[in-house]
Write a structure and sequence with these properties.
Distance between the termini: 28 Å
Number of helices: 14
Number of domains: 1
Order of helices and strands: HHHHHHHHHHHHHH
Shape: globular
Mean pLDDT: 92
Radius of gyration: 20 Å
Largest sheet: none
């Protein structure tokens, strides 16, 4: 087997970049098989804290480690983003959340493509490769939009459009099947097997397809979506930026402590942000954020036009900055 184009090492890449989608699917499958009632319930507070806060929101803040390469973007994007967000929220909360949801969708769809291209940096990318990696996420999204809707939303129920055009679904299924067949035939005929590239395509298809199309569950969608996206992102930030920042050195103890501190800083920032969200806006998890729920009261409706855009600004900045930062750093600096 030829040498594989790993980002860091085979062990690290397989554990933290390539396996999270498969782990998420396996986790949901086990829950679905042994705890079906649990799958119909809202996310338990502890699981919500570990996944939504500890992975999804935390990975947003990891952008700061990479954004140091272009400090001007780090203040320009939030400034313009805040202005745009306030305008959108004044047009209506639904307009704001729908706009943010589709920006997030774009960001989530692009990440697997970027990872696949990194693993293809020593070879040519074919049109079938591109159809396969985009189809792995766009096909489930097409089912979501064309069908009668899902029992969940991206940020909240109803934030993505549902067109109730079920007569178009067979064409979406046929297109997805044709792309899968073409990709499988291409890889079968390939002279050399690019293992990480194929794992990215298969992991994306499994997480998106099962999480959206097969398991019509908010818990299933959250776990597959958050784990398969957030864990690899933080792992890549650690490889290219966090490791340099923390300078692990040669000490074995410090090599273990440094990544833990890296993750802990992200979690603290995420916890603080979500504490403010919960105290001012959602009031869903006061038991998870007792200090915030005690010291802050729910915001007046008139002030949400400023508070919601401000609290959503880290996410918006992450979505917009991400494309610039990784494109500029494609060399792996």
């Amino acid at each position: 087997m030829p040498t594989q184009p790993w980002m860091h090492s085979a062990r690290f890449d397989l554990l933290w970049i390539l396996s999270p989608p498969f782990f998420a699917v396996l986790l949901v499958a086990v829950l679905q098989l042994f705890f079906p009632d649990f799958m119909r319930e809202p996310l338990a507070p502890g699981l919500w804290l570990m996944t939504v806060v500890g992975i999804d929101v935390a990975h947003v803040y990891s952008t700061v480690y990479r954004a140091g390469q272009k400090p001007r973007l780090l203040w320009l994007v939030p400034l313009l983003g805040l202005v745009a967000s306030v305008i959108l929220y004044r047009m209506g909360p639904v307009v704001f959340w729908r706009s943010l949801a589709y920006l997030a969708v774009f960001h989530f769809v692009r990440q697997p493509y970027g990872i696949m291209r990194f693993y293809q940096r020593t070879e040519r990318s074919t049109r079938i490769d591109q159809l396969a990696i985009y189809g792995a996420s766009l096909y489930p999204l097409a089912v979501w939009h064309l069908g009668s809707g899902r029992d969940f939303g991206w940020f909240m129920e109803g934030d993505l459009w549902v067109w109730n055009a079920a007569f178009l679904l067979p064409y979406a299924h046929a297109a997805a099947l044709a792309i899968a067949f073409a990709y499988g035939w291409q890889e079968w005929k390939a002279r050399a097997l690019n293992v990480p590239k194929n794992l990215v395509v298969l992991g994306t298809a499994a997480a998106w397809g099962l999480g959206i199309v097969v398991w019509n569950s908010d818990l299933a969608f959250t776990l597959t979506n958050v784990i398969s996206h957030g864990v690899p992102y933080m792992a890549m930030i650690w490889i290219f930026n966090g490791m340099k920042f923390w300078r692990p050195g040669t000490s074995t103890d410090w090599r273990w402590v440094a990544p833990l501190l890296f993750v802990l800083t992200l979690f603290v920032l995420a916890y603080a942000e979500e504490g403010l969200w919960d105290a001012w806006v959602w009031t869903d998890h006061p038991q998870v954020f007792p200090w915030f729920s005690y010291h802050f009261q729910p915001a007046e409706d008139s002030s949400l036009v400023w508070i919601v855009p401000l609290l959503a600004l880290p996410q918006l900045t992450h979505y917009v900055l991400d494309g610039f930062l990784w494109r500029l750093g494609r060399s792996g600096s």
